[in-house]
Amino acid sequence: MCQAHEEGMLLHDPENVSLDRLGKIVFIQITLNQGRTDELKEKFFAELTSRISAETGELPQNVFINLVEVTKTNWSFGKPYV
């Protein structure tokens, strides 16, 4: 899902993200199974940030990525479980 927010709708700390930079920020949140190493996640962050920057012209420091790790038991794909 991709969602744009109207100006003024994002709460932020102006000391961390200035108002002029706020309109250029890309937030990405990915839900995935637990189990990847920190090293693999760092490589993923670097590669995704690099691709987004290359394809959109967005500055790498404006790309925020958040991984939400869950256990496999927290997924359902429409199958009834007994």
Radius of gyration: 16 Å
The backbone outline, from C-alpha atoms, is: extended
Number of strands: 2
State the end-to-end distance. 31 Å
How confident overall, as mean pLDDT?
85
And the CATH topology of the domain at 19-72?
A: Macrophage Migration Inhibitory Factor
What is the spatial order of strands in the main beta sheet?
1-2
- Beta fraction: 15-25%
CATH superfamily of the domain at 19-72, by name, is Macrophage Migration Inhibitory Factor
Corresponding CATH architecture of the domain at 19-72: 2-Layer Sandwich
SSE arrangement, N to C: HEHE
Low-confidence segments: none
CATH class of the domain at 19-72: Alpha Beta
- Helix amount: 25-40%
By helix and strand content, what is the structural category?
A: alpha+beta
Alpha plus pi helix count: 2
Biggest beta-sheet profile: 2 strands, parallel
Task: Explain what you see.
By secondary structure, the chain is an alpha+beta fold. The protein has a domain at 19-72: Macrophage Migration Inhibitory Factor (2-Layer Sandwich), CATH 3.30.429.10. The chain is built from 2 helices and 2 strands. A two-stranded parallel sheet has the order 1-2. The mean pLDDT is 85.
